[in-house]
Amino acid sequence: MPTLAAHGRLIRLTVLVFALFALAFLGGGGLLVWLGGSPYYLVAGLMLLATAWLLWRHPLHAFWLYIVLLAGTMVWSVIEVGLDGWQLVPRLDLWIVLGLWLALPWVPNRLSTTHGAVKLAREVTLLRIVLLLAAVLLVYGVFFRPAPGTLEGSLAETTAPGNQAAHFAPRDWSAYGHSGYGDRYAPLSQITPANVARLERAWEFHTGDFKGSGDPDEMANEVTPLKANGMLYICTPHNIVIALDPDTGRERWRFNPRINRDASHYQHMICRGVAYYDAAAYGRTAADSPAVSECPRRIYAPTADATLVAVNADTGQPCTRFGQRGVVDLKAGQGAIKRGALNPTSPPVVTNRILVASASVTDNDSTNEPSGVILGFDIDSGKLVWNWDSGNPDETTPLPPGRQYVRNSPNSWSVSSVDERLGLVYIPMGNQTPDIWGGQPQAAGGTLQQQHRRTGHRQRQTALGLPDGASRPLGYGYRRAADTGGPGPARRACAAARSAHQAWRRLRARPPHRPPAGAGARTPSAAGRGQGRLDSPYPAFLCAELRPREAPARDRHVGLQPTGPAGVPHPVPPPSL
Predict the structure, then answer these.
(1) I need a labelling partner for 415 at 20 to 30 A (CA). Which of 5, 48, 398, 454 fits?
(2) What gap in Å lies between CA 32 and CA 508, rounded to an integer?
(3) What is the pLDDT of residues 399-431, one digit of tens each?
(4) Is the model's pTM score more than 0.70?
Protein backbone atom coordinates (compact mmCIF):
# COMPACT_ATOMS: atom_id res chain seq x y z
CA MET A 1 0.00 0.00 0.00
CA PRO A 2 1.50 3.40 -0.94
CA THR A 3 2.68 5.62 1.88
CA LEU A 4 1.29 9.13 2.32
CA ALA A 5 4.57 10.56 1.02
CA ALA A 6 4.24 8.53 -2.17
CA HIS A 7 1.00 10.30 -3.14
CA GLY A 8 2.65 13.61 -3.89
CA ARG A 9 1.93 17.08 -2.62
CA LEU A 10 -1.54 17.37 -4.20
CA ILE A 11 -2.99 14.31 -2.50
CA ARG A 12 -1.29 15.08 0.81
CA LEU A 13 -2.86 18.54 0.76
CA THR A 14 -6.27 17.04 -0.07
CA VAL A 15 -6.06 14.55 2.80
CA LEU A 16 -4.96 17.32 5.19
CA VAL A 17 -7.81 19.67 4.23
CA PHE A 18 -10.41 16.90 4.52
CA ALA A 19 -9.03 15.86 7.90
CA LEU A 20 -9.03 19.41 9.28
CA PHE A 21 -12.66 19.98 8.24
CA ALA A 22 -13.55 16.61 9.75
CA LEU A 23 -12.01 17.54 13.09
CA ALA A 24 -13.94 20.81 13.11
CA PHE A 25 -17.19 18.96 12.46
CA LEU A 26 -16.38 16.40 15.13
CA GLY A 27 -15.75 19.10 17.73
CA GLY A 28 -18.76 21.25 16.91
CA GLY A 29 -21.00 18.27 16.19
CA GLY A 30 -20.08 16.60 19.46
CA LEU A 31 -20.91 19.76 21.38
CA LEU A 32 -24.22 20.06 19.56
CA VAL A 33 -25.15 16.47 20.44
CA TRP A 34 -24.19 17.09 24.05
CA LEU A 35 -26.54 20.08 24.07
CA GLY A 36 -29.33 17.93 22.69
CA GLY A 37 -29.11 19.04 19.06
CA SER A 38 -28.92 17.28 15.72
CA PRO A 39 -26.40 14.39 15.41
CA TYR A 40 -25.88 15.19 11.71
CA TYR A 41 -22.70 17.22 12.13
CA LEU A 42 -21.04 14.57 14.28
CA VAL A 43 -21.91 11.83 11.78
CA ALA A 44 -20.75 14.00 8.87
CA GLY A 45 -17.45 14.65 10.65
CA LEU A 46 -16.87 10.91 11.14
CA MET A 47 -17.64 10.19 7.48
CA LEU A 48 -15.39 13.01 6.30
CA LEU A 49 -12.53 11.78 8.50
CA ALA A 50 -13.00 8.29 7.08
CA THR A 51 -12.95 9.76 3.57
CA ALA A 52 -9.62 11.44 4.29
CA TRP A 53 -8.12 8.17 5.53
CA LEU A 54 -9.50 6.20 2.58
CA LEU A 55 -8.06 8.70 0.09
CA TRP A 56 -4.69 7.57 1.37
CA ARG A 57 -5.44 3.85 1.64
CA HIS A 58 -8.41 2.94 -0.59
CA PRO A 59 -9.39 5.81 -2.94
CA LEU A 60 -12.13 3.73 -4.56
CA HIS A 61 -13.90 3.41 -1.22
CA ALA A 62 -13.23 7.09 -0.46
CA PHE A 63 -15.18 8.20 -3.52
CA TRP A 64 -18.11 5.93 -2.68
CA LEU A 65 -18.18 7.14 0.92
CA TYR A 66 -18.13 10.80 -0.12
CA ILE A 67 -20.94 10.19 -2.63
CA VAL A 68 -23.04 8.72 0.19
CA LEU A 69 -22.16 11.69 2.44
CA LEU A 70 -23.15 14.24 -0.20
CA ALA A 71 -26.37 12.46 -1.17
CA GLY A 72 -27.32 11.96 2.48
CA THR A 73 -26.65 15.62 3.22
CA MET A 74 -28.96 16.63 0.39
CA VAL A 75 -31.74 14.46 1.77
CA TRP A 76 -31.19 15.71 5.35
CA SER A 77 -31.15 19.34 4.21
CA VAL A 78 -34.43 19.04 2.31
CA ILE A 79 -36.07 17.29 5.27
CA GLU A 80 -34.86 20.01 7.64
CA VAL A 81 -35.51 23.21 5.65
CA GLY A 82 -37.43 22.12 2.55
CA LEU A 83 -36.50 23.79 -0.71
CA ASP A 84 -35.63 27.16 0.79
CA GLY A 85 -32.51 27.96 -1.23
CA TRP A 86 -30.95 30.41 1.20
CA GLN A 87 -31.20 27.86 3.99
CA LEU A 88 -29.85 25.10 1.75
CA VAL A 89 -26.76 27.13 0.86
CA PRO A 90 -24.98 26.88 4.26
CA ARG A 91 -25.85 23.18 4.46
CA LEU A 92 -24.52 22.21 1.03
CA ASP A 93 -21.89 24.76 0.00
CA LEU A 94 -18.88 23.17 1.72
CA TRP A 95 -19.75 19.68 0.51
CA ILE A 96 -20.16 20.89 -3.06
CA VAL A 97 -16.77 22.65 -2.98
CA LEU A 98 -14.99 19.57 -1.59
CA GLY A 99 -16.81 17.35 -4.06
CA LEU A 100 -15.82 19.56 -6.98
CA TRP A 101 -12.21 19.29 -5.88
CA LEU A 102 -12.42 15.50 -5.86
CA ALA A 103 -14.19 15.46 -9.24
CA LEU A 104 -11.58 17.58 -11.03
CA PRO A 105 -9.35 15.42 -13.28
CA TRP A 106 -6.02 15.88 -11.52
CA VAL A 107 -7.11 14.33 -8.19
CA PRO A 108 -8.50 11.01 -9.55
CA ASN A 109 -5.70 10.86 -12.14
CA ARG A 110 -3.06 11.20 -9.44
CA LEU A 111 -4.78 8.61 -7.26
CA SER A 112 -5.00 6.16 -10.19
CA THR A 113 -1.32 6.61 -10.91
CA THR A 114 -0.30 6.07 -7.30
CA HIS A 115 -2.48 2.99 -6.77
CA GLY A 116 -1.64 1.26 -10.05
CA ALA A 117 -4.63 -0.53 -11.52
CA VAL A 118 -7.25 1.43 -9.58
CA LYS A 119 -9.72 2.99 -11.99
CA LEU A 120 -12.06 5.72 -10.74
CA ALA A 121 -13.93 6.64 -13.90
CA ARG A 122 -17.28 5.24 -12.74
CA GLU A 123 -17.01 6.74 -9.27
CA VAL A 124 -15.96 10.15 -10.61
CA THR A 125 -18.88 10.16 -13.04
CA LEU A 126 -21.35 9.31 -10.28
CA LEU A 127 -19.88 12.00 -8.03
CA ARG A 128 -20.28 14.56 -10.78
CA ILE A 129 -23.92 13.57 -11.25
CA VAL A 130 -24.64 13.99 -7.53
CA LEU A 131 -22.86 17.36 -7.58
CA LEU A 132 -25.01 18.44 -10.50
CA LEU A 133 -28.16 17.45 -8.61
CA ALA A 134 -27.00 19.46 -5.59
CA ALA A 135 -26.31 22.48 -7.78
CA VAL A 136 -29.73 22.20 -9.42
CA LEU A 137 -31.32 22.00 -5.97
CA LEU A 138 -29.58 25.20 -4.85
CA VAL A 139 -30.33 27.11 -8.04
CA TYR A 140 -33.99 26.19 -7.88
CA GLY A 141 -34.27 27.04 -4.20
CA VAL A 142 -32.52 30.41 -4.51
CA PHE A 143 -33.81 31.69 -7.84
CA PHE A 144 -37.02 29.92 -8.78
CA ARG A 145 -38.83 28.78 -5.65
CA PRO A 146 -41.37 31.33 -4.38
CA ALA A 147 -40.32 32.94 -1.12
CA PRO A 148 -41.94 31.53 2.04
CA GLY A 149 -45.14 33.36 2.82
CA THR A 150 -45.71 34.44 -0.78
CA LEU A 151 -49.39 34.75 -1.62
CA GLU A 152 -50.22 34.43 -5.28
CA GLY A 153 -52.94 36.77 -6.46
CA SER A 154 -53.93 39.30 -9.08
CA LEU A 155 -55.25 42.83 -9.32
CA ALA A 156 -57.44 44.14 -12.08
CA GLU A 157 -55.50 46.56 -14.27
CA THR A 158 -58.34 49.07 -14.08
CA THR A 159 -58.09 49.38 -10.31
CA ALA A 160 -55.33 50.74 -8.12
CA PRO A 161 -54.95 51.43 -4.43
CA GLY A 162 -55.66 54.96 -3.33
CA ASN A 163 -53.36 56.90 -1.09
CA GLN A 164 -54.49 55.77 2.35
CA ALA A 165 -52.65 58.68 3.93
CA ALA A 166 -55.44 60.97 2.84
CA HIS A 167 -53.98 64.08 4.45
CA PHE A 168 -51.18 64.15 1.86
CA ALA A 169 -51.59 65.04 -1.80
CA PRO A 170 -51.85 61.78 -3.76
CA ARG A 171 -49.82 63.22 -6.64
CA ASP A 172 -46.87 63.84 -4.32
CA TRP A 173 -44.32 61.31 -3.11
CA SER A 174 -44.18 62.49 0.48
CA ALA A 175 -42.56 59.43 2.11
CA TYR A 176 -39.94 56.87 1.22
CA GLY A 177 -42.60 54.44 -0.03
CA HIS A 178 -44.90 57.17 -1.43
CA SER A 179 -47.05 57.39 1.71
CA GLY A 180 -46.53 56.29 5.28
CA TYR A 181 -48.01 52.96 4.27
CA GLY A 182 -45.09 52.21 2.00
CA ASP A 183 -47.55 51.35 -0.78
CA ARG A 184 -45.05 52.49 -3.48
CA TYR A 185 -47.89 53.40 -5.80
CA ALA A 186 -48.22 56.70 -7.64
CA PRO A 187 -51.74 57.30 -8.98
CA LEU A 188 -50.44 59.06 -12.09
CA SER A 189 -51.44 58.11 -15.63
CA GLN A 190 -49.43 60.40 -17.89
CA ILE A 191 -46.58 57.90 -18.34
CA THR A 192 -47.79 54.58 -19.73
CA PRO A 193 -46.20 51.45 -21.24
CA ALA A 194 -47.08 52.89 -24.62
CA ASN A 195 -45.04 56.10 -24.24
CA VAL A 196 -42.35 55.34 -21.67
CA ALA A 197 -39.81 54.59 -24.40
CA ARG A 198 -40.15 58.16 -25.69
CA LEU A 199 -39.17 59.83 -22.42
CA GLU A 200 -36.28 62.26 -22.71
CA ARG A 201 -34.04 63.65 -20.02
CA ALA A 202 -35.26 67.08 -18.96
CA TRP A 203 -32.42 67.95 -16.56
CA GLU A 204 -29.69 66.48 -14.40
CA PHE A 205 -28.25 67.64 -11.10
CA HIS A 206 -24.82 67.08 -9.56
CA THR A 207 -24.73 67.12 -5.77
CA GLY A 208 -21.01 67.84 -5.58
CA ASP A 209 -20.68 65.46 -2.64
CA PHE A 210 -17.62 63.35 -3.39
CA LYS A 211 -15.71 60.76 -1.44
CA GLY A 212 -12.99 62.32 0.68
CA SER A 213 -9.85 61.13 2.37
CA GLY A 214 -10.61 58.88 5.31
CA ASP A 215 -14.12 58.02 4.09
CA PRO A 216 -15.06 54.33 4.19
CA ASP A 217 -14.91 52.14 1.09
CA GLU A 218 -18.69 51.72 1.09
CA MET A 219 -20.03 55.12 0.12
CA ALA A 220 -22.98 55.32 -2.24
CA ASN A 221 -25.95 57.40 -3.38
CA GLU A 222 -28.96 55.31 -2.38
CA VAL A 223 -31.45 58.11 -1.82
CA THR A 224 -35.12 57.86 -2.76
CA PRO A 225 -36.17 61.47 -3.45
CA LEU A 226 -39.32 62.94 -1.93
CA LYS A 227 -41.60 65.14 -4.00
CA ALA A 228 -43.66 67.35 -1.71
CA ASN A 229 -44.32 71.00 -1.01
CA GLY A 230 -43.57 71.81 -4.66
CA MET A 231 -39.96 70.62 -4.25
CA LEU A 232 -37.81 67.54 -4.63
CA TYR A 233 -35.88 66.60 -1.47
CA ILE A 234 -32.73 64.47 -1.51
CA CYS A 235 -29.81 63.67 0.78
CA THR A 236 -26.22 62.78 -0.07
CA PRO A 237 -23.84 60.19 1.46
CA HIS A 238 -22.49 62.89 3.80
CA ASN A 239 -26.09 63.71 4.79
CA ILE A 240 -26.32 67.05 3.00
CA VAL A 241 -30.02 67.79 2.44
CA ILE A 242 -30.86 69.49 -0.87
CA ALA A 243 -34.17 70.86 -2.19
CA LEU A 244 -34.62 71.05 -5.97
CA ASP A 245 -37.18 72.48 -8.33
CA PRO A 246 -38.78 69.32 -9.77
CA ASP A 247 -39.44 70.97 -13.15
CA THR A 248 -36.03 72.48 -13.79
CA GLY A 249 -33.63 70.71 -11.43
CA ARG A 250 -32.50 74.05 -10.03
CA GLU A 251 -31.29 73.97 -6.46
CA ARG A 252 -33.62 75.81 -4.09
CA TRP A 253 -31.62 75.40 -0.90
CA ARG A 254 -28.98 73.20 0.71
CA PHE A 255 -28.43 72.27 4.33
CA ASN A 256 -25.10 70.76 5.41
CA PRO A 257 -25.17 69.26 8.93
CA ARG A 258 -21.35 69.11 8.82
CA ILE A 259 -21.07 65.63 10.23
CA ASN A 260 -17.88 64.47 11.84
CA ARG A 261 -15.83 63.19 8.90
CA ASP A 262 -13.34 61.32 11.09
CA ALA A 263 -14.52 58.14 9.47
CA SER A 264 -11.91 55.63 10.59
CA HIS A 265 -14.65 53.50 12.18
CA TYR A 266 -17.51 54.14 9.74
CA GLN A 267 -18.60 50.95 7.99
CA HIS A 268 -20.36 52.93 5.29
CA MET A 269 -21.74 56.35 4.45
CA ILE A 270 -25.21 56.05 2.96
CA CYS A 271 -28.38 58.12 3.15
CA ARG A 272 -31.47 56.32 1.93
CA GLY A 273 -33.79 59.27 2.31
CA VAL A 274 -35.38 61.93 4.48
CA ALA A 275 -38.83 62.33 6.06
CA TYR A 276 -41.32 65.12 5.32
CA TYR A 277 -43.76 66.58 7.84
CA ASP A 278 -46.54 69.09 7.16
CA ALA A 279 -48.35 70.33 10.27
CA ALA A 280 -51.24 71.70 8.21
CA ALA A 281 -51.92 68.21 6.84
CA TYR A 282 -52.84 67.22 10.40
CA GLY A 283 -54.96 70.33 10.95
CA ARG A 284 -52.34 72.04 13.10
CA THR A 285 -51.71 75.79 12.98
CA ALA A 286 -49.10 78.21 14.26
CA ALA A 287 -51.29 78.85 17.29
CA ASP A 288 -50.89 75.23 18.38
CA SER A 289 -47.17 75.39 19.02
CA PRO A 290 -44.20 77.75 18.60
CA ALA A 291 -42.49 74.90 16.75
CA VAL A 292 -45.26 74.88 14.15
CA SER A 293 -44.95 78.64 13.81
CA GLU A 294 -41.21 78.37 13.19
CA CYS A 295 -41.32 75.31 10.92
CA PRO A 296 -44.81 74.47 9.65
CA ARG A 297 -43.25 72.09 7.10
CA ARG A 298 -40.12 70.16 8.01
CA ILE A 299 -37.53 67.75 6.73
CA TYR A 300 -36.19 65.23 9.23
CA ALA A 301 -32.89 63.70 8.16
CA PRO A 302 -30.56 61.09 9.70
CA THR A 303 -26.81 61.66 9.86
CA ALA A 304 -23.94 59.18 9.86
CA ASP A 305 -22.67 60.42 13.22
CA ALA A 306 -25.90 59.28 14.90
CA THR A 307 -28.11 62.36 15.04
CA LEU A 308 -31.46 63.47 13.64
CA VAL A 309 -31.71 66.97 12.21
CA ALA A 310 -34.86 68.99 11.53
CA VAL A 311 -34.86 71.77 8.94
CA ASN A 312 -37.53 74.04 7.54
CA ALA A 313 -38.77 72.43 4.33
CA ASP A 314 -39.36 75.87 2.78
CA THR A 315 -36.02 77.52 3.55
CA GLY A 316 -33.55 74.85 4.64
CA GLN A 317 -32.91 76.61 7.96
CA PRO A 318 -32.65 74.54 11.17
CA CYS A 319 -35.80 74.15 13.26
CA THR A 320 -34.20 75.40 16.44
CA ARG A 321 -37.02 74.31 18.76
CA PHE A 322 -36.37 70.67 17.87
CA GLY A 323 -33.78 69.10 20.21
CA GLN A 324 -30.64 71.20 20.61
CA ARG A 325 -31.10 73.89 17.96
CA GLY A 326 -32.45 71.42 15.43
CA VAL A 327 -30.43 68.32 16.38
CA VAL A 328 -31.28 65.24 18.46
CA ASP A 329 -28.46 62.94 19.55
CA LEU A 330 -29.26 59.24 19.09
CA LYS A 331 -26.24 58.17 21.14
CA ALA A 332 -27.86 59.11 24.46
CA GLY A 333 -28.18 56.06 26.68
CA GLN A 334 -25.78 54.02 24.55
CA GLY A 335 -22.70 54.34 26.76
CA ALA A 336 -19.24 54.50 25.22
CA ILE A 337 -19.34 53.73 21.50
CA LYS A 338 -16.89 54.40 18.72
CA ARG A 339 -17.88 56.88 16.05
CA GLY A 340 -19.77 55.22 13.22
CA ALA A 341 -20.81 52.14 15.20
CA LEU A 342 -24.34 53.64 15.43
CA ASN A 343 -25.34 54.96 12.02
CA PRO A 344 -28.92 55.77 10.96
CA THR A 345 -29.07 55.35 7.19
CA SER A 346 -32.86 55.28 6.67
CA PRO A 347 -35.40 58.06 7.21
CA PRO A 348 -37.41 58.18 10.46
CA VAL A 349 -41.16 57.59 10.56
CA VAL A 350 -43.32 60.71 10.77
CA THR A 351 -46.71 60.77 12.52
CA ASN A 352 -48.87 63.57 13.86
CA ARG A 353 -47.14 63.75 17.24
CA ILE A 354 -44.36 61.12 17.29
CA LEU A 355 -41.15 60.79 15.27
CA VAL A 356 -39.93 57.16 15.29
CA ALA A 357 -36.22 56.61 14.73
CA SER A 358 -33.85 53.66 14.58
CA ALA A 359 -30.30 53.07 13.40
CA SER A 360 -27.97 50.48 11.99
CA VAL A 361 -24.95 49.19 13.88
CA THR A 362 -21.63 47.88 12.61
CA ASP A 363 -22.09 44.40 11.12
CA ASN A 364 -19.83 41.38 11.60
CA ASP A 365 -17.41 43.18 13.91
CA SER A 366 -18.15 42.19 17.51
CA THR A 367 -20.80 41.08 19.98
CA ASN A 368 -20.55 44.35 21.90
CA GLU A 369 -22.23 46.79 19.53
CA PRO A 370 -24.65 49.60 20.47
CA SER A 371 -28.23 48.77 21.31
CA GLY A 372 -30.75 48.52 18.49
CA VAL A 373 -33.28 50.49 20.54
CA ILE A 374 -36.24 52.08 18.73
CA LEU A 375 -36.87 55.67 19.84
CA GLY A 376 -40.04 57.78 19.81
CA PHE A 377 -39.53 61.56 19.95
CA ASP A 378 -41.99 64.41 20.25
CA ILE A 379 -42.45 65.69 16.70
CA ASP A 380 -42.04 69.35 17.76
CA SER A 381 -39.58 69.44 20.64
CA GLY A 382 -37.50 66.35 19.92
CA LYS A 383 -37.98 65.22 23.52
CA LEU A 384 -37.77 61.46 23.99
CA VAL A 385 -41.26 60.14 24.66
CA TRP A 386 -40.55 56.39 24.74
CA ASN A 387 -37.92 53.80 23.91
CA TRP A 388 -38.36 50.17 22.91
CA ASP A 389 -35.27 48.00 23.36
CA SER A 390 -35.72 44.39 22.29
CA GLY A 391 -33.27 43.45 25.03
CA ASN A 392 -35.56 45.02 27.64
CA PRO A 393 -38.96 45.29 25.98
CA ASP A 394 -41.08 45.90 29.07
CA GLU A 395 -39.42 49.15 30.07
CA THR A 396 -40.56 51.69 27.50
CA THR A 397 -40.46 54.90 29.53
CA PRO A 398 -37.33 56.98 28.84
CA LEU A 399 -34.34 55.71 30.77
CA PRO A 400 -33.25 57.83 33.72
CA PRO A 401 -29.77 59.39 33.74
CA GLY A 402 -27.03 56.84 34.28
CA ARG A 403 -28.97 53.92 32.75
CA GLN A 404 -28.01 52.39 29.42
CA TYR A 405 -29.81 50.36 26.80
CA VAL A 406 -28.95 46.67 26.36
CA ARG A 407 -25.77 46.26 24.34
CA ASN A 408 -25.96 44.38 21.06
CA SER A 409 -29.75 44.01 21.00
CA PRO A 410 -31.18 43.54 17.48
CA ASN A 411 -31.61 46.74 15.51
CA SER A 412 -33.68 48.08 12.63
CA TRP A 413 -31.58 49.61 9.86
CA SER A 414 -34.27 49.55 7.20
CA VAL A 415 -37.29 51.70 6.33
CA SER A 416 -40.43 51.40 8.42
CA SER A 417 -44.06 52.14 7.56
CA VAL A 418 -46.99 53.47 9.54
CA ASP A 419 -50.79 53.16 9.59
CA GLU A 420 -52.03 56.15 11.51
CA ARG A 421 -55.66 55.07 11.29
CA LEU A 422 -54.84 51.84 13.13
CA GLY A 423 -52.22 53.57 15.23
CA LEU A 424 -49.46 51.11 14.25
CA VAL A 425 -45.92 51.51 13.03
CA TYR A 426 -44.28 48.50 11.37
CA ILE A 427 -40.56 48.17 12.01
CA PRO A 428 -38.52 45.38 10.34
CA MET A 429 -35.98 44.06 12.83
CA GLY A 430 -32.56 42.86 11.76
CA ASN A 431 -30.39 40.12 13.19
CA GLN A 432 -28.38 40.54 16.33
CA THR A 433 -24.76 41.25 15.40
CA PRO A 434 -22.65 39.70 14.15
CA ASP A 435 -25.50 38.47 11.97
CA ILE A 436 -25.43 34.71 11.34
CA TRP A 437 -22.97 33.86 14.14
CA GLY A 438 -24.78 31.67 16.68
CA GLY A 439 -21.90 30.61 18.91
CA GLN A 440 -23.11 32.80 21.78
CA PRO A 441 -26.93 32.79 21.70
CA GLN A 442 -28.44 35.41 23.97
CA ALA A 443 -31.90 35.77 25.40
CA ALA A 444 -32.19 39.44 24.49
CA GLY A 445 -33.97 40.84 21.48
CA GLY A 446 -35.35 38.43 18.93
CA THR A 447 -35.17 35.46 21.29
CA LEU A 448 -37.94 36.77 23.58
CA GLN A 449 -41.15 34.87 23.15
CA GLN A 450 -44.60 34.47 24.60
CA GLN A 451 -47.11 31.73 23.94
CA HIS A 452 -50.79 32.47 23.77
CA ARG A 453 -52.17 29.48 25.59
CA ARG A 454 -55.65 29.73 24.11
CA THR A 455 -54.42 28.72 20.65
CA GLY A 456 -50.84 27.59 21.27
CA HIS A 457 -49.65 30.01 18.60
CA ARG A 458 -46.34 31.71 19.27
CA GLN A 459 -46.20 35.14 17.71
CA ARG A 460 -43.24 37.13 16.47
CA GLN A 461 -45.07 40.41 16.81
CA THR A 462 -44.95 43.22 19.32
CA ALA A 463 -47.54 45.90 20.01
CA LEU A 464 -46.24 49.02 21.73
CA GLY A 465 -47.76 52.35 22.52
CA LEU A 466 -46.44 55.34 20.60
CA PRO A 467 -48.41 57.89 22.60
CA ASP A 468 -47.92 61.41 23.84
CA GLY A 469 -47.05 59.74 27.16
CA ALA A 470 -45.16 56.58 28.03
CA SER A 471 -46.02 53.47 26.03
CA ARG A 472 -47.28 50.11 27.16
CA PRO A 473 -46.38 46.70 25.72
CA LEU A 474 -49.30 44.55 24.67
CA GLY A 475 -47.47 41.37 23.78
CA TYR A 476 -44.56 39.90 21.94
CA GLY A 477 -43.19 36.60 20.67
CA TYR A 478 -43.09 35.03 17.24
CA ARG A 479 -45.18 32.94 14.96
CA ARG A 480 -44.75 30.73 11.93
CA ALA A 481 -46.04 31.83 8.55
CA ALA A 482 -48.46 28.92 8.50
CA ASP A 483 -50.35 30.39 11.45
CA THR A 484 -53.04 32.37 9.69
CA GLY A 485 -54.47 33.65 12.97
CA GLY A 486 -57.86 35.11 13.59
CA PRO A 487 -59.62 38.30 12.58
CA GLY A 488 -58.58 41.80 13.43
CA PRO A 489 -56.97 44.54 11.34
CA ALA A 490 -53.90 44.83 13.57
CA ARG A 491 -53.17 41.13 13.27
CA ARG A 492 -53.71 41.11 9.53
CA ALA A 493 -51.46 44.14 9.19
CA CYS A 494 -48.70 42.45 11.18
CA ALA A 495 -49.04 39.32 9.05
CA ALA A 496 -48.72 41.39 5.87
CA ALA A 497 -45.68 43.17 7.20
CA ARG A 498 -44.11 39.89 8.25
CA SER A 499 -44.48 38.30 4.82
CA ALA A 500 -42.89 41.36 3.22
CA HIS A 501 -39.59 40.87 5.01
CA GLN A 502 -38.40 37.22 5.10
CA ALA A 503 -35.34 36.81 7.30
CA TRP A 504 -33.46 33.86 8.68
CA ARG A 505 -32.12 33.65 12.20
CA ARG A 506 -31.07 30.19 13.15
CA LEU A 507 -28.85 29.53 16.15
CA ARG A 508 -27.03 26.23 15.74
CA ALA A 509 -25.18 26.10 19.02
CA ARG A 510 -28.34 25.23 20.94
CA PRO A 511 -31.35 23.16 19.90
CA PRO A 512 -34.64 24.93 19.24
CA HIS A 513 -36.77 25.45 22.33
CA ARG A 514 -40.03 23.57 22.00
CA PRO A 515 -42.19 23.75 25.11
CA PRO A 516 -43.80 20.43 26.06
CA ALA A 517 -47.47 19.99 25.45
CA GLY A 518 -49.51 21.76 28.07
CA ALA A 519 -46.61 23.84 29.34
CA GLY A 520 -47.42 27.32 30.50
CA ALA A 521 -46.28 30.47 28.75
CA ARG A 522 -42.77 31.67 29.51
CA THR A 523 -42.64 34.73 31.68
CA PRO A 524 -39.78 37.17 31.19
CA SER A 525 -37.68 38.03 34.21
CA ALA A 526 -37.80 41.42 35.87
CA ALA A 527 -35.10 42.60 33.49
CA GLY A 528 -37.38 41.85 30.57
CA ARG A 529 -35.36 38.92 29.17
CA GLY A 530 -36.98 35.62 28.28
CA GLN A 531 -35.22 32.29 28.56
CA GLY A 532 -36.44 30.78 25.29
CA ARG A 533 -34.88 31.15 21.87
CA LEU A 534 -36.00 31.70 18.33
CA ASP A 535 -36.39 28.60 16.17
CA SER A 536 -38.52 30.09 13.42
CA PRO A 537 -37.01 30.89 10.00
CA TYR A 538 -39.47 33.73 9.61
CA PRO A 539 -38.88 37.44 10.01
CA ALA A 540 -38.72 39.66 13.03
CA PHE A 541 -41.28 42.46 12.86
CA LEU A 542 -42.09 45.01 15.49
CA CYS A 543 -45.67 46.22 15.32
CA ALA A 544 -45.93 49.27 17.52
CA GLU A 545 -49.21 50.83 18.54
CA LEU A 546 -49.88 54.55 18.62
CA ARG A 547 -52.14 54.65 21.64
CA PRO A 548 -52.51 56.93 24.68
CA ARG A 549 -51.26 55.72 28.01
CA GLU A 550 -54.51 55.74 29.94
CA ALA A 551 -54.99 51.99 29.62
CA PRO A 552 -55.94 49.73 32.53
CA ALA A 553 -52.96 48.72 34.62
CA ARG A 554 -53.51 45.05 33.78
CA ASP A 555 -52.74 45.81 30.14
CA ARG A 556 -49.25 46.96 30.90
CA HIS A 557 -47.78 43.54 31.63
CA VAL A 558 -46.87 41.00 29.00
CA GLY A 559 -48.90 37.85 29.49
CA LEU A 560 -51.83 39.70 31.08
CA GLN A 561 -53.13 41.60 28.09
CA PRO A 562 -56.75 41.13 27.02
CA THR A 563 -57.06 38.73 24.14
CA GLY A 564 -59.56 38.20 21.40
CA PRO A 565 -61.01 34.87 20.22
CA ALA A 566 -57.76 33.96 18.48
CA GLY A 567 -55.67 34.54 21.59
CA VAL A 568 -54.05 37.79 20.49
CA PRO A 569 -54.50 41.34 21.75
CA HIS A 570 -57.75 42.98 20.74
CA PRO A 571 -57.54 45.40 17.82
CA VAL A 572 -57.08 48.94 19.04
CA PRO A 573 -59.61 51.64 18.15
CA PRO A 574 -58.15 54.28 15.83
CA PRO A 575 -56.36 56.75 18.08
CA SER A 576 -56.25 60.48 17.89
CA LEU A 577 -52.66 61.06 16.83
Answers:
(1) 398
(2) 8
(3) 988 899 999 898 999 999 999 988 889 999 888
(4) no
